[in-house]
Protein backbone atom coordinates (compact mmCIF):
# COMPACT_ATOMS: atom_id res chain seq x y z
CA UNK A 1 0.00 0.00 0.00
CA UNK A 2 1.33 3.42 -0.89
CA UNK A 3 -0.22 6.75 -0.12
CA UNK A 4 0.32 10.12 -1.66
CA UNK A 5 1.90 11.36 -4.79
CA UNK A 6 4.09 14.43 -4.91
CA UNK A 7 1.84 17.40 -5.59
CA UNK A 8 2.17 18.90 -9.02
CA UNK A 9 3.65 22.34 -9.18
CA UNK A 10 5.49 22.05 -5.88
CA UNK A 11 4.59 25.23 -3.99
CA UNK A 12 7.29 26.47 -1.58
CA UNK A 13 5.26 25.55 1.50
CA UNK A 14 4.99 21.89 0.54
CA UNK A 15 8.67 21.20 1.13
CA UNK A 16 8.93 23.80 3.92
CA UNK A 17 9.26 23.51 7.69
CA UNK A 18 7.24 26.14 9.57
CA UNK A 19 8.36 27.46 12.96
CA UNK A 20 5.92 29.17 15.31
CA UNK A 21 7.23 32.08 17.36
CA UNK A 22 5.30 33.29 20.37
CA UNK A 23 6.72 36.83 20.29
CA UNK A 24 6.23 37.62 23.98
CA UNK A 25 8.56 34.78 24.85
CA UNK A 26 11.20 34.68 22.14
CA UNK A 27 13.70 37.45 22.87
CA UNK A 28 13.46 40.64 24.88
CA UNK A 29 15.73 43.51 23.81
CA UNK A 30 14.26 46.52 25.63
CA UNK A 31 14.45 45.18 29.16
CA UNK A 32 10.75 44.85 29.97
CA UNK A 33 10.76 41.07 30.38
CA UNK A 34 8.61 40.64 27.24
CA UNK A 35 9.92 39.58 23.83
CA UNK A 36 9.87 42.01 20.91
CA UNK A 37 10.47 42.29 17.17
CA UNK A 38 14.10 43.46 17.41
CA UNK A 39 14.57 40.36 19.57
CA UNK A 40 13.21 38.12 16.83
CA UNK A 41 15.53 39.80 14.32
CA UNK A 42 18.51 39.20 16.59
CA UNK A 43 17.69 35.49 16.72
CA UNK A 44 17.00 34.82 13.05
CA UNK A 45 20.34 33.12 12.66
CA UNK A 46 19.27 30.43 15.10
CA UNK A 47 16.39 29.66 12.75
CA UNK A 48 18.66 29.59 9.74
CA UNK A 49 20.99 27.20 11.57
CA UNK A 50 18.00 25.07 12.53
CA UNK A 51 17.06 25.01 8.85
CA UNK A 52 13.41 26.07 8.96
CA UNK A 53 11.85 27.87 5.99
CA UNK A 54 9.09 30.03 7.44
CA UNK A 55 8.19 31.68 10.71
CA UNK A 56 4.66 32.27 11.90
CA UNK A 57 4.31 34.98 14.52
CA UNK A 58 1.48 34.86 17.04
CA UNK A 59 -0.23 38.31 17.10
CA UNK A 60 1.98 41.40 17.35
CA UNK A 61 -0.76 44.00 16.86
CA UNK A 62 -2.08 46.64 19.29
CA UNK A 63 -4.15 44.86 21.91
CA UNK A 64 -5.22 45.32 25.52
CA UNK A 65 -3.78 41.79 25.96
CA UNK A 66 -6.87 40.34 27.62
CA UNK A 67 -6.04 37.22 25.57
CA UNK A 68 -2.39 38.02 24.91
CA UNK A 69 -2.79 39.56 21.50
CA UNK A 70 -5.74 37.50 20.25
CA UNK A 71 -7.85 40.54 21.16
CA UNK A 72 -6.82 43.05 18.53
CA UNK A 73 -7.61 46.76 18.76
CA UNK A 74 -5.85 47.76 15.51
CA UNK A 75 -5.24 45.28 12.70
CA UNK A 76 -2.73 47.37 10.76
CA UNK A 77 -0.24 48.50 13.37
CA UNK A 78 2.25 46.96 15.79
CA UNK A 79 1.84 46.88 19.57
CA UNK A 80 4.45 49.23 21.12
CA UNK A 81 5.49 46.35 23.40
CA UNK A 82 6.85 44.61 20.31
CA UNK A 83 8.11 47.64 18.35
CA UNK A 84 6.66 49.55 15.41
CA UNK A 85 6.02 49.16 11.71
CA UNK A 86 9.64 50.13 11.00
CA UNK A 87 10.81 47.22 13.15
CA UNK A 88 8.39 44.94 11.38
CA UNK A 89 9.59 46.00 7.93
CA UNK A 90 13.14 45.38 9.07
CA UNK A 91 12.15 41.92 10.30
CA UNK A 92 10.62 41.16 6.92
CA UNK A 93 13.73 42.37 5.11
CA UNK A 94 16.11 40.48 7.40
CA UNK A 95 14.05 37.30 7.25
CA UNK A 96 13.71 37.45 3.48
CA UNK A 97 17.42 38.14 3.10
CA UNK A 98 18.00 34.83 4.89
CA UNK A 99 15.49 32.96 2.75
CA UNK A 100 12.88 32.81 5.54
CA UNK A 101 9.21 33.45 4.81
CA UNK A 102 7.12 35.36 7.34
CA UNK A 103 3.53 34.40 8.20
CA UNK A 104 1.27 36.50 10.38
CA UNK A 105 -1.58 35.54 12.64
CA UNK A 106 -4.86 36.81 11.22
CA UNK A 107 -7.61 37.00 13.85
CA UNK A 108 -10.78 37.71 11.86
CA UNK A 109 -13.37 36.02 14.09
CA UNK A 110 -13.32 38.66 16.80
CA UNK A 111 -11.73 41.96 17.76
CA UNK A 112 -10.96 43.50 21.10
CA UNK A 113 -13.87 45.32 22.74
CA UNK A 114 -11.58 48.37 22.52
CA UNK A 115 -11.37 48.19 18.73
CA UNK A 116 -12.87 51.38 17.21
CA UNK A 117 -15.24 49.19 15.19
CA UNK A 118 -16.74 47.73 18.37
CA UNK A 119 -16.77 51.05 20.21
CA UNK A 120 -18.79 52.45 17.33
CA UNK A 121 -20.99 49.37 17.14
CA UNK A 122 -21.92 49.50 20.80
CA UNK A 123 -22.42 53.26 20.83
CA UNK A 124 -26.04 52.99 19.61
CA UNK A 125 -28.49 50.56 18.09
CA UNK A 126 -28.54 52.89 15.10
CA UNK A 127 -24.77 52.97 14.66
CA UNK A 128 -23.51 52.29 11.11
CA UNK A 129 -21.40 49.53 12.56
CA UNK A 130 -24.10 47.98 14.78
CA UNK A 131 -24.37 45.04 12.41
CA UNK A 132 -20.60 44.51 12.29
CA UNK A 133 -20.98 42.47 15.48
CA UNK A 134 -23.63 40.00 16.62
CA UNK A 135 -26.26 41.81 18.68
CA UNK A 136 -29.46 40.20 19.95
CA UNK A 137 -32.31 41.15 22.21
CA UNK A 138 -32.61 39.39 25.55
CA UNK A 139 -34.66 36.17 25.57
CA UNK A 140 -38.44 36.66 26.00
CA UNK A 141 -38.18 35.70 29.67
CA UNK A 142 -35.03 37.86 30.06
CA UNK A 143 -31.39 36.79 30.12
CA UNK A 144 -29.13 35.75 27.22
CA UNK A 145 -30.76 35.13 23.82
CA UNK A 146 -29.85 31.43 23.77
CA UNK A 147 -27.70 28.79 25.48
CA UNK A 148 -24.45 29.35 23.57
CA UNK A 149 -21.35 29.01 25.75
CA UNK A 150 -18.01 30.77 25.58
CA UNK A 151 -14.94 28.62 24.95
CA UNK A 152 -13.44 30.43 27.90
CA UNK A 153 -16.27 29.69 30.35
CA UNK A 154 -19.77 31.04 31.03
CA UNK A 155 -22.39 32.31 28.60
CA UNK A 156 -21.16 33.50 25.22
CA UNK A 157 -23.45 36.54 25.51
CA UNK A 158 -22.52 39.76 27.28
CA UNK A 159 -25.17 42.33 28.12
CA UNK A 160 -24.65 45.92 27.07
CA UNK A 161 -26.66 47.98 29.54
CA UNK A 162 -26.84 51.28 27.60
CA UNK A 163 -28.27 49.72 24.42
CA UNK A 164 -30.20 46.91 26.12
CA UNK A 165 -28.87 44.11 23.90
CA UNK A 166 -26.45 41.23 24.19
CA UNK A 167 -23.41 40.71 21.99
CA UNK A 168 -21.90 37.33 21.17
CA UNK A 169 -18.34 36.39 22.13
CA UNK A 170 -17.03 32.89 21.44
CA UNK A 171 -14.06 33.64 23.73
CA UNK A 172 -13.76 36.44 26.33
CA UNK A 173 -16.37 39.18 26.70
CA UNK A 174 -13.44 41.42 25.76
CA UNK A 175 -13.36 39.62 22.37
CA UNK A 176 -16.70 40.35 20.63
CA UNK A 177 -17.28 38.25 17.49
CA UNK A 178 -17.46 40.05 14.18
CA UNK A 179 -20.53 39.38 12.06
CA UNK A 180 -19.15 37.56 9.03
CA UNK A 181 -22.56 37.63 7.36
CA UNK A 182 -22.03 41.35 6.86
CA UNK A 183 -20.18 42.02 3.55
CA UNK A 184 -18.61 45.18 4.98
CA UNK A 185 -16.90 43.13 7.68
CA UNK A 186 -15.53 40.74 5.10
CA UNK A 187 -14.29 43.60 2.95
CA UNK A 188 -12.62 45.25 5.93
CA UNK A 189 -10.70 42.09 6.88
CA UNK A 190 -9.71 41.47 3.26
CA UNK A 191 -8.23 44.97 3.24
CA UNK A 192 -6.23 44.04 6.36
CA UNK A 193 -4.88 41.02 4.51
CA UNK A 194 -3.90 43.15 1.53
CA UNK A 195 -2.20 45.69 3.80
CA UNK A 196 0.18 43.05 5.16
CA UNK A 197 0.72 41.23 1.89
CA UNK A 198 1.58 44.52 0.18
CA UNK A 199 4.25 44.96 2.85
CA UNK A 200 5.66 41.58 1.86
CA UNK A 201 4.08 39.14 4.31
CA UNK A 202 4.06 35.61 2.89
CA UNK A 203 0.75 34.45 4.26
CA UNK A 204 -1.44 33.95 7.29
CA UNK A 205 -2.38 31.46 9.92
CA UNK A 206 -6.07 32.23 10.39
CA UNK A 207 -7.27 32.05 13.98
CA UNK A 208 -10.33 29.84 14.70
CA UNK A 209 -11.36 29.86 11.07
CA UNK A 210 -14.03 27.20 11.70
CA UNK A 211 -15.82 29.63 14.04
CA UNK A 212 -16.39 32.42 11.52
CA UNK A 213 -20.05 31.68 10.77
CA UNK A 214 -22.81 31.16 13.34
CA UNK A 215 -26.37 29.98 12.86
CA UNK A 216 -28.51 32.81 11.48
CA UNK A 217 -31.52 31.47 13.42
CA UNK A 218 -29.57 31.40 16.69
CA UNK A 219 -30.81 27.95 17.64
CA UNK A 220 -29.74 26.48 21.00
CA UNK A 221 -26.80 24.12 20.87
CA UNK A 222 -27.74 20.56 21.88
CA UNK A 223 -26.54 19.03 25.13
CA UNK A 224 -23.44 16.89 24.82
CA UNK A 225 -24.32 13.35 25.92
CA UNK A 226 -20.61 12.61 26.52
CA UNK A 227 -20.15 15.45 29.00
CA UNK A 228 -18.79 14.31 32.37
CA UNK A 229 -18.85 16.35 35.55
CA UNK A 230 -15.48 18.07 35.88
CA UNK A 231 -14.96 18.46 32.11
CA UNK A 232 -14.45 22.05 30.95
CA UNK A 233 -17.78 23.87 31.02
CA UNK A 234 -18.00 24.65 27.28
CA UNK A 235 -18.06 20.89 26.59
CA UNK A 236 -21.57 20.71 28.11
CA UNK A 237 -22.92 21.52 24.66
CA UNK A 238 -22.21 20.28 21.15
CA UNK A 239 -21.25 23.44 19.18
CA UNK A 240 -23.58 22.49 16.32
CA UNK A 241 -24.83 26.03 15.63
CA UNK A 242 -21.71 27.99 16.53
CA UNK A 243 -18.89 26.33 14.57
CA UNK A 244 -18.21 24.45 11.33
CA UNK A 245 -21.28 25.78 9.52
CA UNK A 246 -21.46 24.94 5.81
CA UNK A 247 -21.50 28.67 4.93
CA UNK A 248 -18.00 29.06 6.33
CA UNK A 249 -16.50 27.53 3.20
CA UNK A 250 -17.78 30.34 1.05
CA UNK A 251 -15.97 33.01 3.08
CA UNK A 252 -12.82 30.91 3.16
CA UNK A 253 -12.94 30.77 -0.64
CA UNK A 254 -13.12 34.54 -0.64
CA UNK A 255 -10.09 34.76 1.64
CA UNK A 256 -8.26 32.41 -0.64
CA UNK A 257 -9.02 34.67 -3.60
CA UNK A 258 -7.60 37.62 -1.70
CA UNK A 259 -4.42 35.67 -1.00
CA UNK A 260 -4.21 34.81 -4.68
CA UNK A 261 -4.20 38.45 -5.69
CA UNK A 262 -0.56 38.12 -4.61
CA UNK A 263 2.05 35.63 -5.71
CA UNK A 264 3.05 32.55 -3.70
CA UNK A 265 1.24 33.35 -0.46
CA UNK A 266 0.09 30.73 2.00
CA UNK A 267 -3.21 30.40 3.85
CA UNK A 268 -3.33 28.14 6.91
CA UNK A 269 -6.46 27.54 8.96
CA UNK A 270 -6.60 26.85 12.67
CA UNK A 271 -9.23 24.14 12.96
CA UNK A 272 -9.89 21.75 15.83
CA UNK A 273 -12.22 19.18 14.27
CA UNK A 274 -12.18 15.42 13.74
CA UNK A 275 -10.18 14.46 10.63
CA UNK A 276 -13.21 13.70 8.48
CA UNK A 277 -14.52 17.22 9.06
CA UNK A 278 -11.11 18.87 8.97
CA UNK A 279 -10.38 17.81 5.40
CA UNK A 280 -13.44 19.71 4.15
CA UNK A 281 -11.40 22.86 4.79
CA UNK A 282 -9.25 22.17 1.73
CA UNK A 283 -12.42 23.40 0.10
CA UNK A 284 -14.34 22.59 -3.02
CA UNK A 285 -11.77 21.98 -5.80
CA UNK A 286 -9.07 22.83 -3.24
CA UNK A 287 -10.31 26.44 -3.07
CA UNK A 288 -10.18 26.54 0.73
CA UNK A 289 -7.11 27.01 2.89
CA UNK A 290 -3.88 25.49 1.56
CA UNK A 291 -3.24 23.85 4.91
CA UNK A 292 -5.97 23.12 7.44
CA UNK A 293 -3.78 22.64 10.50
CA UNK A 294 -3.75 18.97 11.42
CA UNK A 295 -3.60 18.87 15.22
CA UNK A 296 -4.08 15.14 15.63
CA UNK A 297 -0.56 14.56 16.98
CA UNK A 298 -1.35 17.07 19.74
CA UNK A 299 -4.24 14.97 20.91
CA UNK A 300 -3.30 11.35 20.13
CA UNK A 301 -2.41 8.67 22.70
CA UNK A 302 1.29 8.00 22.39
CA UNK A 303 0.89 4.43 21.23
CA UNK A 304 2.41 3.04 18.00
CA UNK A 305 -0.68 1.29 16.53
CA UNK A 306 -2.87 4.29 17.37
CA UNK A 307 -0.47 6.67 15.65
CA UNK A 308 -0.12 4.38 12.63
CA UNK A 309 -3.90 4.25 12.29
CA UNK A 310 -4.15 8.00 12.63
CA UNK A 311 -1.59 8.60 9.86
CA UNK A 312 -3.39 6.20 7.55
CA UNK A 313 -6.80 7.65 8.31
CA UNK A 314 -5.54 11.13 7.61
CA UNK A 315 -3.78 10.12 4.39
CA UNK A 316 -6.89 8.26 3.24
CA UNK A 317 -9.19 11.21 3.98
CA UNK A 318 -7.11 13.83 2.18
CA UNK A 319 -8.82 15.10 -0.95
CA UNK A 320 -7.01 14.52 -4.22
CA UNK A 321 -4.17 17.06 -4.41
CA UNK A 322 -4.68 18.17 -0.79
CA UNK A 323 -1.30 18.62 0.85
CA UNK A 324 -0.87 17.08 4.34
CA UNK A 325 0.59 18.84 7.36
CA UNK A 326 1.47 17.95 10.94
CA UNK A 327 1.69 20.01 14.12
CA UNK A 328 3.42 18.82 17.28
CA UNK A 329 3.04 21.82 19.54
CA UNK A 330 1.52 25.28 19.82
CA UNK A 331 0.81 28.02 22.33
CA UNK A 332 -2.55 26.55 23.31
CA UNK A 333 -1.58 22.98 24.22
CA UNK A 334 0.85 21.43 26.69
CA UNK A 335 4.41 21.10 25.36
CA UNK A 336 5.22 17.88 23.52
CA UNK A 337 7.92 17.00 26.10
CA UNK A 338 5.23 17.34 28.78
CA UNK A 339 2.73 15.23 26.85
CA UNK A 340 4.90 12.32 25.74
CA UNK A 341 7.72 12.64 28.28
CA UNK A 342 11.17 14.10 27.90
CA UNK A 343 12.68 10.85 26.59
CA UNK A 344 10.11 10.51 23.83
CA UNK A 345 10.44 14.10 22.63
CA UNK A 346 13.17 13.00 20.19
CA UNK A 347 10.95 10.28 18.77
CA UNK A 348 8.17 12.80 18.36
CA UNK A 349 10.56 15.12 16.48
CA UNK A 350 11.70 12.30 14.22
CA UNK A 351 8.09 11.41 13.49
CA UNK A 352 7.09 15.01 12.77
CA UNK A 353 10.03 15.57 10.44
CA UNK A 354 9.77 12.33 8.48
CA UNK A 355 6.02 12.22 7.87
CA UNK A 356 4.61 13.26 4.52
CA UNK A 357 3.51 16.89 4.57
CA UNK A 358 4.47 20.26 5.98
CA UNK A 359 5.59 20.14 9.63
CA UNK A 360 5.13 22.98 12.11
CA UNK A 361 7.57 23.24 15.03
CA UNK A 362 6.66 25.27 18.11
CA UNK A 363 9.48 27.48 19.42
CA UNK A 364 11.50 25.76 22.14
CA UNK A 365 10.39 22.27 21.17
CA UNK A 366 13.69 22.00 19.28
CA UNK A 367 15.27 22.05 22.75
CA UNK A 368 12.71 19.70 24.26
CA UNK A 369 11.55 22.55 26.53
CA UNK A 370 9.28 21.21 29.26
CA UNK A 371 5.75 22.14 30.25
CA UNK A 372 6.49 24.56 33.10
CA UNK A 373 4.41 24.56 36.29
CA UNK A 374 3.21 28.11 36.95
CA UNK A 375 2.70 29.23 40.55
CA UNK A 376 -0.79 30.71 41.14
CA UNK A 377 0.53 34.24 41.65
CA UNK A 378 2.16 34.20 38.20
CA UNK A 379 -0.80 32.90 36.20
CA UNK A 380 -1.61 35.12 33.22
CA UNK A 381 -3.80 32.97 31.01
CA UNK A 382 -7.47 34.04 31.13
CA UNK A 383 -8.52 30.43 30.57
CA UNK A 384 -6.89 29.39 33.84
CA UNK A 385 -8.28 32.44 35.59
CA UNK A 386 -11.83 31.74 34.39
CA UNK A 387 -11.76 27.96 34.85
CA UNK A 388 -9.11 27.38 37.51
CA UNK A 389 -7.75 23.98 38.50
CA UNK A 390 -8.88 22.07 35.39
CA UNK A 391 -5.39 21.83 33.98
CA UNK A 392 -6.29 24.16 31.10
CA UNK A 393 -3.62 26.81 31.68
CA UNK A 394 -1.66 27.66 28.57
CA UNK A 395 1.05 29.65 30.37
CA UNK A 396 3.22 26.57 30.94
CA UNK A 397 3.76 26.19 27.19
CA UNK A 398 4.53 29.91 26.70
CA UNK A 399 7.59 30.34 28.91
CA UNK A 400 10.68 32.22 27.68
CA UNK A 401 12.96 30.67 25.10
CA UNK A 402 16.13 29.29 26.65
CA UNK A 403 19.09 30.73 24.77
CA UNK A 404 22.05 30.41 27.14
CA UNK A 405 23.20 29.81 30.69
CA UNK A 406 22.69 33.45 31.78
CA UNK A 407 20.52 34.41 34.73
CA UNK A 408 17.42 34.82 32.58
CA UNK A 409 18.52 32.31 29.95
CA UNK A 410 19.64 35.06 27.55
CA UNK A 411 15.97 35.88 27.00
CA UNK A 412 16.02 39.11 28.98
CA UNK A 413 18.08 41.20 31.39
CA UNK A 414 15.17 41.27 33.83
CA UNK A 415 12.72 38.79 35.34
CA UNK A 416 10.59 37.59 32.39
CA UNK A 417 6.80 37.92 32.27
CA UNK A 418 6.45 34.17 32.83
CA UNK A 419 8.86 32.02 34.86
CA UNK A 420 11.69 30.21 33.10
CA UNK A 421 11.77 26.44 33.08
CA UNK A 422 13.84 25.03 35.95
CA UNK A 423 16.31 23.40 33.55
CA UNK A 424 17.26 26.52 31.61
CA UNK A 425 20.87 26.53 32.82
CA UNK A 426 21.54 23.29 30.94
CA UNK A 427 18.74 23.07 28.39
CA UNK A 428 19.57 26.01 26.19
CA UNK A 429 20.66 26.75 22.64
CA UNK A 430 24.26 27.69 23.52
CA UNK A 431 24.84 24.42 25.37
CA UNK A 432 22.98 22.12 23.06
CA UNK A 433 24.57 23.34 19.83
CA UNK A 434 27.86 21.96 21.11
CA UNK A 435 26.46 18.51 21.85
CA UNK A 436 26.20 16.39 18.68
CA UNK A 437 23.65 14.09 20.30
CA UNK A 438 21.36 16.85 21.62
CA UNK A 439 17.72 17.11 20.62
CA UNK A 440 18.56 20.50 19.08
CA UNK A 441 21.09 18.90 16.77
CA UNK A 442 18.64 16.10 16.08
CA UNK A 443 16.21 18.71 14.74
CA UNK A 444 18.95 20.28 12.65
CA UNK A 445 20.04 16.93 11.23
CA UNK A 446 16.47 15.87 10.46
CA UNK A 447 15.64 19.13 8.72
CA UNK A 448 18.87 19.00 6.71
CA UNK A 449 18.10 15.42 5.73
CA UNK A 450 14.63 16.39 4.53
CA UNK A 451 16.16 19.13 2.47
CA UNK A 452 18.61 16.72 0.83
CA UNK A 453 16.12 13.97 0.09
CA UNK A 454 12.84 14.67 -1.72
CA UNK A 455 11.65 11.23 -0.56
CA UNK A 456 11.30 12.70 2.94
CA UNK A 457 9.42 15.80 1.89
CA UNK A 458 7.32 15.08 -1.15
CA UNK A 459 7.83 11.31 -1.35
CA UNK A 460 4.99 8.84 -0.91
CA UNK A 461 4.18 7.26 2.47
CA UNK A 462 4.03 3.50 3.09
CA UNK A 463 2.98 1.96 6.40
CA UNK A 464 5.22 -0.97 7.35
CA UNK A 465 4.69 -2.10 10.91
CA UNK A 466 3.05 -0.92 14.11
CA UNK A 467 2.94 -3.23 17.09
CA UNK A 468 3.49 -2.62 20.79
CA UNK A 469 5.99 0.23 20.93
CA UNK A 470 7.41 -0.09 17.45
CA UNK A 471 6.36 2.13 14.56
CA UNK A 472 7.86 1.64 11.12
CA UNK A 473 7.03 3.37 7.86
CA UNK A 474 8.74 4.06 4.57
CA UNK A 475 9.04 7.08 2.30
CA UNK A 476 9.75 6.75 -1.43
CA UNK A 477 10.56 9.07 -4.26
CA UNK A 478 12.05 7.98 -7.56
CA UNK A 479 14.79 5.51 -6.68
CA UNK A 480 15.12 6.74 -3.07
CA UNK A 481 13.64 4.61 -0.28
CA UNK A 482 13.84 5.34 3.43
CA UNK A 483 12.64 3.31 6.34
CA UNK A 484 11.83 5.17 9.57
CA UNK A 485 11.92 3.02 12.72
CA UNK A 486 10.72 4.49 16.00
CA UNK A 487 10.69 2.93 19.45
CA UNK A 488 7.89 4.57 21.41
CA UNK A 489 8.81 2.74 24.59
CA UNK A 490 11.70 2.63 27.02
CA UNK A 491 12.62 -1.05 26.48
CA UNK A 492 14.87 -2.22 23.64
CA UNK A 493 13.07 -3.84 20.71
CA UNK A 494 14.17 -6.01 17.83
CA UNK A 495 12.36 -6.83 14.61
CA UNK A 496 13.44 -9.48 12.13
CA UNK A 497 12.33 -9.58 8.52
CA UNK A 498 11.88 -12.59 6.30
CA UNK A 499 12.82 -10.55 3.23
CA UNK A 500 16.48 -9.66 2.62
CA UNK A 501 16.47 -6.18 4.10
CA UNK A 502 19.63 -4.19 3.36
CA UNK A 503 20.30 -0.60 4.19
CA UNK A 504 22.35 1.95 6.09
CA UNK A 505 21.41 4.08 9.06
CA UNK A 506 21.68 7.65 7.83
CA UNK A 507 20.34 9.28 10.95
CA UNK A 508 19.87 8.07 14.51
CA UNK A 509 18.20 9.88 17.38
CA UNK A 510 21.36 10.15 19.47
CA UNK A 511 23.76 10.52 16.51
CA UNK A 512 25.54 7.34 17.63
CA UNK A 513 24.55 4.84 14.95
CA UNK A 514 24.94 6.81 11.75
CA UNK A 515 26.58 4.77 8.99
CA UNK A 516 25.69 1.41 10.59
CA UNK A 517 24.74 -1.36 8.15
CA UNK A 518 21.26 -2.87 8.50
CA UNK A 519 21.00 -6.52 7.49
CA UNK A 520 17.75 -8.43 7.90
CA UNK A 521 16.74 -7.02 11.29
CA UNK A 522 16.37 -3.77 13.17
CA UNK A 523 17.41 -3.37 16.78
CA UNK A 524 16.46 -0.30 18.71
CA UNK A 525 17.35 0.85 22.21
CA UNK A 526 14.55 2.32 24.32
CA UNK A 527 13.42 5.79 23.17
CA UNK A 528 15.55 5.47 20.05
CA UNK A 529 14.74 5.94 16.40
CA UNK A 530 16.51 5.47 13.07
CA UNK A 531 16.19 6.67 9.51
CA UNK A 532 17.50 3.91 7.25
CA UNK A 533 18.30 4.34 3.59
CA UNK A 534 17.49 1.12 1.75
CA UNK A 535 19.84 -0.22 -0.86
CA UNK A 536 18.40 -0.57 -4.36
CA UNK A 537 18.42 -4.38 -4.16
CA UNK A 538 16.87 -4.49 -0.67
CA UNK A 539 13.43 -5.96 -0.30
CA UNK A 540 10.76 -3.69 1.07
CA UNK A 541 9.35 -5.23 4.25
CA UNK A 542 5.67 -6.01 3.82
CA UNK A 543 3.17 -4.20 6.02
CA UNK A 544 2.26 -6.23 9.10
CA UNK A 545 -0.20 -4.81 11.57
C1 LIG B 1 -6.99 30.46 19.12
C2 LIG B 1 -5.69 30.97 19.63
O1 LIG B 1 -4.68 30.08 19.24
C3 LIG B 1 -5.81 31.11 21.11
O2 LIG B 1 -4.60 31.39 21.73
C4 LIG B 1 -6.84 32.18 21.40
O3 LIG B 1 -7.04 32.27 22.78
C5 LIG B 1 -8.15 31.86 20.70
N1 LIG B 1 -7.97 31.46 19.35
C6 LIG B 1 -9.04 33.07 20.68
O4 LIG B 1 -8.51 33.99 19.76
TrEMBL record:
GO terms for biological process: oligosaccharide catabolic process. It holds the Pfam family Alpha-amylase. This is Alpha-glucosidase. CDD domains: AmyAc_OligoGlu_like (cd11331). Residues 20-398 form the Glycosyl hydrolase family 13 catalytic domain. InterPro entries: GH, GH13_cat_dom, Glyco_hydro_b, O16G_dom_2. Its EC number is 3.2.1.20. It comes from Chelatococcus caeni. It comes from the Bacteria. The keyword Lipoprotein does not apply.
Amino acid sequence: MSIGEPAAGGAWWQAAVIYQIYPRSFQDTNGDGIGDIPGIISRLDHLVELGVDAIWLSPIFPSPMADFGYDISDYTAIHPLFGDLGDFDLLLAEAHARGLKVLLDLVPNHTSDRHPWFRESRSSRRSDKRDWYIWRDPAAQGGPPNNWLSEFGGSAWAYDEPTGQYYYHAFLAAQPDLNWRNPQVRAAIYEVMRFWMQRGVDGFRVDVIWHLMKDDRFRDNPLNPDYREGDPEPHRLVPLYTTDLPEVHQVIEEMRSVVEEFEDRLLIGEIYLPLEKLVAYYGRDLRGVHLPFNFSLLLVNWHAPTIARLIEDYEALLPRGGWPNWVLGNHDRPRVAGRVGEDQARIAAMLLLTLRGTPTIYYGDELGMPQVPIPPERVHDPVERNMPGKGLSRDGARTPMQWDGGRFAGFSEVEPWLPLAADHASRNVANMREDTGSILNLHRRLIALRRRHPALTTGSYHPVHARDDLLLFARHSGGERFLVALNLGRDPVSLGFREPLRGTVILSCFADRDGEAVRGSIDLAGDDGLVIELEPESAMPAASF
